[in-house]
């Protein structure tokens, strides 16, 4: 029997506004329960006022997802009870959503995933469980941090167009990178700025869905991938053995590597949506409607980075990291060859900074431009460029200072280089003899002696060339 997997996502992305969705409380992190007011604590009679900035961000994302925009905003109450929801309802866009019938082009494969809708809503507060509060036994109780209550979110719902866990991760990475390129959200999963619920079903025909199971509680790409792998096998096993697959919500249990039942659904949830009486329907202002995203297709960008002819494994990483991509693009526009830019900026500078617990800054781009110029002028070679980077980082100096103090010096004339090489050959007659007898591997030893004598002031390529010539003359 052949099985077909259908995966859809509901992704929440925190919009990067400074204040909350319906009040002027800060969205910054802070001591628990310090960014709160009667509105986001749900006091009776407190009046919510929609945040225009949130719609500016949401409209960018909505347009980048290629859907139809609804100018009329109707907020609704979604009713349910939970300690993190003090009002007893969440204010959300129900019908119509801000955007419908869109699609996202996956970065690597270029496949189109259809998007059902994107809508704006407020976040719930954050509940802290025993493991987070550190309280155990009799003292254990649930704690709630209302700083997150009322933070603006965009919820993006996709059709079940995804067919395997790798594609699911590619979808989420593409969506995350898109939010970052647009400046709509940092979309950091570890910080809860991007959260994904997944629905999955397995069927025996490609055009037919199976019984839909929802999975929650995954907060990394790896957890999502593992949960999907597990769930696909569980459902295939059930179909093969004739077990019933229930329509239910399951949670991913990282420790056991299994999905576990949270609640079984007899009918679909009834949230008794009704229009929010405190916010009459309104039209988005033209200024908001007219916002155009400056970026829209990660697949085009993927093809561009791929054409740089760099290590294939790095292409995805660069595309999914807007800051890195923009920096490399800047370097290439400055005339630095892509391979050199990637090797110096990504491998050397970023790598060395990370070893020292530091991170990339704007000025590091200009390091690469400077070092590339020195190499083009024949003043240093790649290995000296790397030495300069290491010294600049460990001594907290600019490469220019290191180069001028240690590597520029009065330039050594070719005749002087040859003279030093000849001296070294004269001191090592037996090694030279071995070379003459055909043991070419001793070349490396002689090369090392010469490099040491020049103290890194002569590029290796020059030494290699002249040493080869001198050896022929002996
Ligand atoms: Zn507030």
Looking at the structure, what is the overall shape? Answer: elongated
Order of strands side by side in the largest beta sheet?
2-6-7-10-1-11-12-13-14
Q: What is the SS-derived class?
A: alpha+beta
- In percent, how much strand structure appears in the residues? 15-25%
Number of helical segments? 16
Radius of gyration: 30 Å
Low-confidence stretches: none
> What is the typical, i.e. mean, pLDDT?
92
Give the cofactors and ligands.
Answer: zinc ion
Number of structurally distinct domains: 3
Summarize the biggest pleated sheet. Answer: 9 strands, mixed
Helix content: 40-55%
Distance between the termini: 76 Å
Q: How many strands in all?
A: 16
List the defining traits of the structure above:
Arc Repressor Mutant, subunit A; three-stranded antiparallel sheet; 16 strands; binds zinc ion
Provide a descriptive summary of the structure in words.
With 474 residues, this protein is an alpha+beta fold. It folds into three domains: 4-289, no CATH class; 321-408, no CATH class; 414-473, Arc Repressor Mutant, subunit A (Orthogonal Bundle). The chain is built from 16 helices and 16 strands. The strands form four sheets. It has a nine-stranded mixed beta sheet. Helix 13 (414-427) crosses helix 16. The protein is elongated. Zinc ion (ZN) is lined by residues 20, 23, 25, 36-37, 39-40, 150.
Give the topology, please.
Elements: E1 4-14, H1 52-64, E2 68-69, E3 72-73, E4 75-79, E5 89-93, E6 99-105, E7 112-122, E8 126-128, H2 130-133, E9 143-145, E10 152-158, H3 165-182, E11 194-203, E12 213-216, H4 221-241, E13 248-253, E14 258-264, E15 274-275, E16 282-283, H5 286-289, H6 298-306, H7 312-319, H8 322-333, H9 338-355, H10 363-376, H11 382-394, H12 399-408, H13 414-427, H14 429-436, H15 443-454, H16 460-473
Parallel strand pairs: 12-13
Antiparallel strand pairs: 1-10, 1-11, 2-6, 3-16, 4-5, 4-15, 6-7, 7-10, 8-9, 11-12, 13-14
Helix pairs in contact: 3-4, 6-7, 8-9, 8-10, 9-10, 9-11, 11-12, 13-15, 13-16, 15-16
The structure holds zinc ion (ZN).
Zinc ion is lined by residues 20, 23, 25, 36-37, 39-40, 150.
